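User: hey, got a sec? need 1-acyl-sn-glycerol-3-phosphate acyltransferase folded
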Amino acid sequence: MFAVARYEWSGGENFPKSGGFIAAANHATEIDALTFAHYLFDHGHEPRILAKRGLFTTPVIGSILRATRMIPVDRGTADAGRSLEAARVELAGGACVAIFPEGTITRDPDLWPMEGKTGLARLALATRVPVIPVAQWGAGSILPRYGRVLRPFPRKRVQIRTGPAVDLADLYDRPHDSATLREATTRVLDAITAELETLRGEQAPAARFDLRKHPEYRTKQTVYPPVERP
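Assistant: Yep! Here you go:
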């Protein structure tokens, strides 16, 4: 990764000194899973990343994921809860569990974080471990969203920035219903977006892109049309 990325890292002091925690990052291209993992590892945290189960059965990548004890996720099935239970075990053992709260690569036309899934919120509220927001920008210049051709050379500028832990304490003792889970998810995504705004030097749209309202964006496209935001 050092051969293809010219990293600019900041905010590492926000990682906990001990104990398990959740690292939550934005997801704009397939390769940012590697830049995310590299960042965590070089800050002394061997990550357990939640990744879709299909990746675990692919040649080479699957063997790497299994060897590094990543956590498979069965998306949209009754077995999806198993991944959260596996993550709980890792957190109880003091591990760093890394999650993309959006659940998949963002479909936002401008690559801002979109509305997320509630799996991270369920895990965070059940375990009460710190949730650390991580923003990254620039990995798309190595491999664009849903791109098929790597652009490894010359080395690309990749910025990664960590913010302070997201405050969820007031939600711990509430019923973990959909409203509470959505509030926790929103706080995490807001924290990631704030750090990403600093990296990009831009302000994110006031309304976060919601894939549920734009089913035409579900297909994998390399170019996304503009979208009207409320």
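Quick note: The mean pLDDT is 91. Let me know if you need anything else on 1-acyl-sn-glycerol-3-phosphate acyltransferase.
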